[in-house]
């Protein structure tokens, strides 16, 4: 008799259920087993989101024990209760098990970190500063700030670098974000901010969005786009990918990355040719129009169509829609700014708005969407290498004198202008900068050409980093100071509309954690300048910031904490405490240049810095996905967001012959990495896309080029030459770094090793989560 | 006919999954997300569809009808509640009978769970979590009049065609004004070749 | 509070003019018949078990009467319940799997394991919350203990007799047969006499936890109703507390207040027994259906009869289960039973695509 088939041992429980109906793991929050709904008598603390430049209002839910445990929508007029997935999950950072709670210290990078006392960590840092500066000069020690800090702290970073460290080398990660737009705004208008508030979008007849995946990077801003369309506005989206807003746009211009200037010049060419420009406005309010007009005449649609890889008719269509509209508006973001001609790209958009007379009116104007929460405020008050508080120039003798008076130092003591963030890394490679303090940034993920960045940091003799989670950069440092999250301190931020909003403190920091303000003031005290850094908290800093900005273009003098709490936000300039703020600029037709005119600038398109060859025929472009934020140090630890998008992918067009999920090696002149392919018709065949929130070996920025815009020094993230080839297996996403002896909170990391791409660029569908 | 309810407009949806995260914050099922977000054209576009419980009115709650344990209650205001924890035996009849693919099931807990319109919020007149946070208004909570005040000229449809059957629901879809008379297509009938759906 | 003003069980709308399922009136008739038969059987069992009422304690008469009503109610409700289209087919399939000899040969341990998991230790509750599992186990075992003691006592099936008339040597008899003798002063004797007190001590913390949760947890509060959710817990606590107080009264107060407590106790017990078929406690009767359902699915999986979604090929459930569901949907005249062959995700995706194709592609 043949052996009867052995019945497989079958578990009594559970049985089968269809995909997407059976698991609830995506809770993933602060210890998932501690999700309760029995919090009676909670308090709601009104504040804003810590993430992007929209700065949505939200309430943090605080329990009896004074701990943040949840979020509640807040009807603030920026976001009208809406929140994006990042914002909803933001609160989970506050009491997250991965938080740093003691200073970490090591004398050499070969040693492991050990927990140290605050005294020891501060003293060691100061002794290293002293050692390096006495041996190699003050400028051998650098400082890098961040634009997710409250404005008070960004002011403190600038003052600390110049007054306590006495170094010229200070810069911030807004250099990777906002500087192109800032440069263009300054050149054209003499003021560095968006011209119109979000609410003006609702009034426009034609809305042009250039290089911004609004649906993913600024989801809550989408309501303004849709609101405009509900009222009949035409939507034009310029983006190489068919993003969520481009999918339904009236016109989607899927141009080749790095060709924006040619496109906008050509649009202006058509506008001029068809007589749609506003000659009377140009005559009264601008300089340089004739030169611009001559230049754009060299960009007929046929020529631009060839450069941009789009149909020539589309250029004509855009020109007619934009210039033909009664009120038109243009908003742009990193897509056109992250280029070696980022400033010029922005200027071409400004030229288009100005030439059609769409400036400074309800529903007509121009704006730039800041990426970081305080991308606007962070660049205003002196942590940028060439700027002093109030947007003053460090090379202007008057400005220098004013600030020296406020700070109580001799003008000779105030260092000269420094260099940009990427240049500082090169200087670290060359040993011109030997020591560094980093606050609120993660260049190991966010700077281009990782190999160079890693080499630069490794060459530095001393590196201290302030953060609340151990970032990839902090994990490479000598000293790490554990500091507060946004919910454990108060302060202001300025959003993309230049509206200053106040964040409130919702809970006490965990034991062992200090504010960034406290750390910098303690260091200053040990460096012998404690008297100039007597700041018990953000309030005192803000008072000094108000005075330091008084009378400048970026005038905060009329903004006080009390007024912010009463109003829900005030747009600067606000010169006096009875001034209502300035939501819309140029309403009187005057800019902030001494002549009151818009200075139009001639722009000549040039190809991207990384040349295409037979070996590297494709364009690699990078960007964000909706579930993650910047370098991902925060969002890669939040369970729900990891569940939504566990890993990066490479987006390729079906014409390359890959199937969805195939391992694809992306090769550039800087390196190569293997990602799972997300095969989609929503991208140009000559372009591939990788989101950049993950560290090596899955870092888009190990592949991108460290070429800079000569004016803004922004790296050319958005285009470099690449090729793709089939590979064996995808590179695995590493776990986020944690303090010694700790493991990244496992509940949140379950799906990190999923080798598949998400269902769509926004993440995995809820039924695709295995 | 409709009071305050959810109106869904997939055309506005950007697939950001704010609703998915927000659902988890609702106190009546904290930590568990009930909403579905599907990318309906993967490989072709980023189009997406959020699915909340449609709260079927005619036939009234097929999920409750097929329930062998009488576990799914419909409150007088037409809200189909999630399974009663003491009664539900976790058989998944509702999961597979629902024409919209709404209920979920926790196999370990032997418990069905589904969107209950955030009953802890709507019972107080607050909007459900998903529709409160939805950045685009793809999920809108309110009356038809409130919807039209924000979006002039829109129409809504609260019936779906599944083959010959029409299911009318408490939750409605936004449709272009000239197509309001139609029941919205529900996805049936099937197109089969050798027993496999070829769509 | 968010208590719905009026909640209706929607699971039993009689399908109009359906020929296959039994019409409403005949269900009532059959249920009444079943109730009458079961209560008659119980009365007969009481009479026989108490040796023609010789062992029947007339002081416990109200309790015994209440159990007869309980038997009627449970049988009636059960019949109505399993006659509903949703339950009828699964009831048949569940019992079919239960009494299948082939099934038993293939997996003899499946049924006992399922009973232990689902009915005894209620592992599934642990997946909902450990605290709720612990509290439910306390109530469950407390009630089981109490029922095992009190039901036979009130029916006159148990007797405790002492040769000397007042102990300490007792013997316990069931249906008149001596089962064991014990000394009321040793531990076994103490346990025998205080079984109900132990049951009360188990039930009180369990029920109190649930009551506390019902006042505190917003998930539980949502849609909670007094008669359905709170009353049963209050009844359990009242029964247990008054029961304990009876012991307290007889030991420490020399019977002070005993009469009043006894009546209060009796009233609450009688009310609870009669309430069982109609409220939350009916889940005690219903829950074994979980085992039937599980066994039915288990049988299908043993034969590898997994049903895959017609579109994506992912497993939906066992094939007999899907066929059974389609039958149920046809009984209910839900005209889209073919839809059950698709997984929920494919249903949604197909509907989404239909909307994009036929209603509007995107924004306009």
CATH fold node name of chain B: Alpha-Beta Plaits
User: Could you name the ranges of chain B where pLDDT drops below 50 across 5 or more consecutive residues?
Assistant: none
> Separation of termini of chain A?
43 Å
Average residue-wise pLDDT of chain A: 93
Spans where pLDDT lies below 50 across 5 or more residues of chain A: none
Helix amount of chain B:
10-25%
CATH class of the domain at 195-368 in chain A: Alpha Beta
Per the principal axes of the C-alpha atoms, what is the gross shape of chain A? Answer: globular
- Main sheet specs of chain A: 7 strands, mixed
Proper CATH architecture of chain B: 2-Layer Sandwich
- The number of helices of chain A is 22
Radius of gyration of chain B over all CA atoms, rounded: 17 Å
Biggest sheet architecture of chain B: 6 strands, mixed
What is the alpha-carbon Rg of chain A in Å? 26 Å
Helix count of chain B equals 6
Number of domains in the coordinates of chain B?
Answer: 1
- What best-fitting shape of chain B do the alpha-carbon axes yield? globular
User: How would you name the oligomeric state of the polypeptide chains in this document?
Assistant: heterotrimer
The chain-level mean pLDDT of chain B equals 88
The CATH homologous superfamily of the domain at 195-368 in chain A is called: Dimethylsulfoxide Reductase, domain 2
How many β-strand stretches of chain A? 28
List the helices and strands and how they pair.
The complex is a heterotrimer of chains A (770), B (199) and C (364).
Chain A: E1 43-48, E2 57-62, E3 68-73, H1 85-89, E4 104-105, E5 114-115, H2 118-136, E6 141-145, H3 151-164, E7 170-172, H4 179-189, E8 206-210, H5 214-217, H6 222-230, E9 234-238, H7 244-247, E10 251-253, H8 260-273, H9 279-285, E11 286-287, H10 289-296, H11 301-308, H12 312-324, E12 328-332, H13 334-337, H14 342-355, E13 365-368, E14 387-388, E15 392-393, H15 397-407, H16 421-429, E16 435-439, H17 443-446, H18 450-459, E17 462-467, E18 479-482, E19 491-494, E20 499-503, H19 516-526, H20 538-549, H21 561-567, E21 570-571, E22 598-599, E23 618-623, H22 639-644, E24 650-652, E25 663-668, E26 671-679, E27 687-691, E28 720-726
Parallel strand pairs in A: 6-7, 6-16, 8-9, 8-12, 9-10, 11-22, 12-13, 16-17, 17-18, 23-27, 24-26
Antiparallel strand pairs in A: 1-2, 2-3, 4-5, 4-18, 14-15, 19-20, 20-21, 23-28, 25-26, 25-28
Helix pairs in contact in A: 2-19, 3-19, 3-20, 4-14, 8-11, 8-12, 8-14, 11-12, 16-18
Chain B: E1 5-8, H1 18-25, E2 36-39, E3 48-51, E4 56-58, H2 62-66, E5 73-75, H3 93-97, E6 104-106, E7 111-113, H4 119-122, H5 129-133, E8 139-142, H6 144-150, E9 155-162, E10 165-175, E11 184-185, E12 192-193, E13 196-197
Parallel strand pairs in B: 1-10, 9-11
Antiparallel strand pairs in B: 1-8, 2-3, 4-10, 6-7, 9-10, 12-13
Chain C: E1 7-9, H1 24-49, H2 61-83, H3 85-98, H4 101-106, H5 110-120, H6 123-128, H7 130-154, E2 158-161, E3 169-174, E4 177-183, H8 187-193, H9 195-216, H10 218-221, H11 226-252, H12 258-275, H13 282-286, H14 288-302, E5 306-308, E6 315-318, H15 319-331, H16 344-359
Antiparallel strand pairs in C: 2-3, 3-4, 5-6
Helix pairs in contact in C: 1-2, 2-12, 3-14, 3-15, 5-14, 7-9, 9-11, 11-12
């Amino acid at each position: 008799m043949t052996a009867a088939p052995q019945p497989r041992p079958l578990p009594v429980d559970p049985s089968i259920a269809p995909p997407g109906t059976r698991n609830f793991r995506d809770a993933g929050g602060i210890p998932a087993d501690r999700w309760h709904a029995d919090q009676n008598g909670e308090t709601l603390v009104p504040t804003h989101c810590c993430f992007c430049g929209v700065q949505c209002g939200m309430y943090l839910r605080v329990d009896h024990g004074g701990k943040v445990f949840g979020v509640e929508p807040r009807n603030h007029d920026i976001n009208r209760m809406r929140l994006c997935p990042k914002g909803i999950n933001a609160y989970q950072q506050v009491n997250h098990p991965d938080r740093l709670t003691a200073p970490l210290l090591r004398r050499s990078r070969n040693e492991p970190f050990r927990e140290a006392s605050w005294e020891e960590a501060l003293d060691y840092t100061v002794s290293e500063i002293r050692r390096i500066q006495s041996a190699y000069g003050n400028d051998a020690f650098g400082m890098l700030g961040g634009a997710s800090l409250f404005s008070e702290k960004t002011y403190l970073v600038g003052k600390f670098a110049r007054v306590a460290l006495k170094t010229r080398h200070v810069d911030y990660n807004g250099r990777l974000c906002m500087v192109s737009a800032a440069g263009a705004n300054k050149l054209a208008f003499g003021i560095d901010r968006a011209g119109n508030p979000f609410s003006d979008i609702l009034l426009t007849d034609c809305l042009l969005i250039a290089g911004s995946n609004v649906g993913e990077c600024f989801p809550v801003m989408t309501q303004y786009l849709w609101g405009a369309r509900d009222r009949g506005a035409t939507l034009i989206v310029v983006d190489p990918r068919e993003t969520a807003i481009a999918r339904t746009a009236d016109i989607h211009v899927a141009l080749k990355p790095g060709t924006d200037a040619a496109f906008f010049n050509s649009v202006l060419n058509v506008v001029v040719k068809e007589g749609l420009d506003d000659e009377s406005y140009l005559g009264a309010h601008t300089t340089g129009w004739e030169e611009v007009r001559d230049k754009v005449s060299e960009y007929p649609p046929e020529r631009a169509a060839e450069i941009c890889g789009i149909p020539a008719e589309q250029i004509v269509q855009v020109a007619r829609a934009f210039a033909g509209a009664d009120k038109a508006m243009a908003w742009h973001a990193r897509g056109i700014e992250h280029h070696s001609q980022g400033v010029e790209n922005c200027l071409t958009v400004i030229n288009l708005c100005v030439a059609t007379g769409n400036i400074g009116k309800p529903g007509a104007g121009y704006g730039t969407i800041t990426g970081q929460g305080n991308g606007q405020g962070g660049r205003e008050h002196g942590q940028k290498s060439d700027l002093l508080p109030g947007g003053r120039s460090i090379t202007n003798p008057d400005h220098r004198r004013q600030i020296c008076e406020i700070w109580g130092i001799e003008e000779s003591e105030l260092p000269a202008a420094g260099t940009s963030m990427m240049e500082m890394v090169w200087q670290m490679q060359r040993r011109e900068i030997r020591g560094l303090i980093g606050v609120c940034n993660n260049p190991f993920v966010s700077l281009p050409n990782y190999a160079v960045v890693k080499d630069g940091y490794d060459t530095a003799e001393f590196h201290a980093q302030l953060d609340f989670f151990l970032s990839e950069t902090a994990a490479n440092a000598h000293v790490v100071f554990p500091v507060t999250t946004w919910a454990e301190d108060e302060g202001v931020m300025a959003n993309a509309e230049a509206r200053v909003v106040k964040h409130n403190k919702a809970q006490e920091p965990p034991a062992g954690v200090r504010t960034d303000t406290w750390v910098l003031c303690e260091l200053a005290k040990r460096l012998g300048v404690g008297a100039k850094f007597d700041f018990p908290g953000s309030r005192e800093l803000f008072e000094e910031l108000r005075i330091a900005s008084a009378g400048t273009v970026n005038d905060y003098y009329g903004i006080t904490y009390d007024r912010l709490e009463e109003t829900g936000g005030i747009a600067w300039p606000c010169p006096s405490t009875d001034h209502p703020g300035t939501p819309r600029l140029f309403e009187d037709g005057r800019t902030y240049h001494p002549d009151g005119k818009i200075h139009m600038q001639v722009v000549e398109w040039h190809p991207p810095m990384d040349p295409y060859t037979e070996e590297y025929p494709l364009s690699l472009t990078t960007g964000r996905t909706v579930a993650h934020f910047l370098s991902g140090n925060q969002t890669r630890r939040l369970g729900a967001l990891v569940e939504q998008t566990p890993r990066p992918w490479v987006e390729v067009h079906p014409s390359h012959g890959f199937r969805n999920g195939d391992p694809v090696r992306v090769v550039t002149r800087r390196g190569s990495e293997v990602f799972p392919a997300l095969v989609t018709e929503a991208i140009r065949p000559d372009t591939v896309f990788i989101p950049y929130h993950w560290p090596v070996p899955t870092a888009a920025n190990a592949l991108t080029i460290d070429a800079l815009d000569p004016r803004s020094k922004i790296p050319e993230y958005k285009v470099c030459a690449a090729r793709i080839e089939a590979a064996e297996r995808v590179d695995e996403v590493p776990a986020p770094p944690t303090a010694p002896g700790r493991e990244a909170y496992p509940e949140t990391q379950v799906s990190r090793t999923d080798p598949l791409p998400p269902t769509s660029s926004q993440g995995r569908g809820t039924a695709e989560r295995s | 006919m409709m009071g305050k309810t959810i109106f869904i407009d997939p055309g506005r949806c950007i697939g950001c999954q704010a609703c998915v995260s927000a659902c988890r914050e609702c106190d009546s099922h904290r930590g568990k997300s009930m909403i579905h977000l599907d990318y309906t054209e993967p490989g072709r576009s980023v189009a997406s569809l959020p699915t909340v419980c449609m709260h079927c009115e005619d036939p009234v709650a097929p999920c409750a009808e097929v329930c062998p344990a009488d576990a799914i209650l419909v409150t007088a205001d037409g809200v189909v509640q999630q399974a009663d924890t003491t009664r539900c035996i976790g058989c998944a009849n509702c999961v597979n009978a629902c024409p919209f693919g709404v209920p979920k099931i926790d196999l370990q807990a032997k418990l069905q769970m589904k969107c209950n319109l955030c009953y802890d919020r709507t019972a107080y007149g607050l909007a459900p979590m998903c529709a409160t946070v939805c950045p685009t208004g793809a999920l809108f909570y309110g009356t038809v009049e409130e919807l039209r005040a924000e979006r002039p000229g829109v129409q809504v449809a609260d019936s779906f065609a599944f083959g010959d059957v029409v299911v009318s629901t408490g939750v409605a879809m936004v449709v272009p004004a000239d197509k309001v008379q139609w029941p919205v297509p529900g996805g049936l009938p099937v197109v089969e070749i050798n027993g496999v759906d070829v769509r | 509070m968010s208590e719905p003003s009026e909640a209706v069980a929607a699971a039993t709308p009689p399908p109009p003019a359906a020929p296959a399922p039994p019409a409403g009136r005949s269900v009532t008739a059959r249920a009444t018949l079943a109730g009458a038969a079961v209560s008659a059987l119980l009365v007969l069992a009481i009479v026989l078990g108490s040796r023609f009422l010789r062992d029947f304690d007339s002081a416990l008469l109200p309790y015994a009467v209440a159990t007869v009503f309980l038997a009627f109610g449970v049988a009636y409700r059960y019949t109505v319940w399993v006659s509903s289209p949703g339950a009828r087919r699964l009831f048949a399939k569940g019992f079919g799997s239960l009494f299948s000899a082939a099934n038993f040969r293939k997996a003899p341990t499946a049924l006992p394991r399922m009973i232990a998991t689902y009915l005894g230790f209620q592992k599934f509750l642990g997946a909902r919350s450990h605290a709720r599992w612990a509290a439910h186990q306390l109530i469950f075992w407390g009630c089981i203990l109490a029922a095992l003691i009190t039901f036979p006592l009130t029916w006159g099936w148990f007797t405790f007799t002492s040769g000397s008339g007042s102990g300490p040597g007792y013997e316990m008899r069931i249906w008149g047969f001596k089962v064991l003798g014990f000394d009321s002063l040793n531990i076994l004797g103490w346990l025998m006499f205080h079984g109900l007190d132990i049951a009360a001590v188990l039930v009180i913390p369990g029920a109190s936890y649930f009551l506390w949760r019902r006042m505190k947890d917003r998930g539980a509060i949502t849609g909670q109703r007094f008669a359905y959710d709170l009353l049963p817990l209050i009844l359990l606590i009242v029964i247990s507390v008054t029961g304990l107080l009876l012991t307290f009264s007889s030991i420490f107060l020399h019977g002070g207040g005993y009469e009043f407590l006894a009546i209060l106790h009796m009233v609450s017990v009688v009310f609870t027994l009669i309430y069982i078929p109609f409220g939350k406690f009916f889940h005690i009767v219903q829950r074994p259906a979980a085992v039937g359902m599980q066994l039915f699915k288990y049988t299908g999986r043993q034969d590898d009869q997994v049903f895959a979604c017609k579109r994506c090929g992912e497993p939906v459930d066992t094939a007999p289960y899907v066929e059974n569901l389609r039958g149920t949907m046809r009984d209910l005249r839900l005209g889209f039973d073919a839809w059950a062959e698709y997984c929920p995700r494919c249903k949604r995706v197909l509907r989404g695509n239909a909307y994009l194709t036929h209603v509007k592609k995107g924004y306009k």
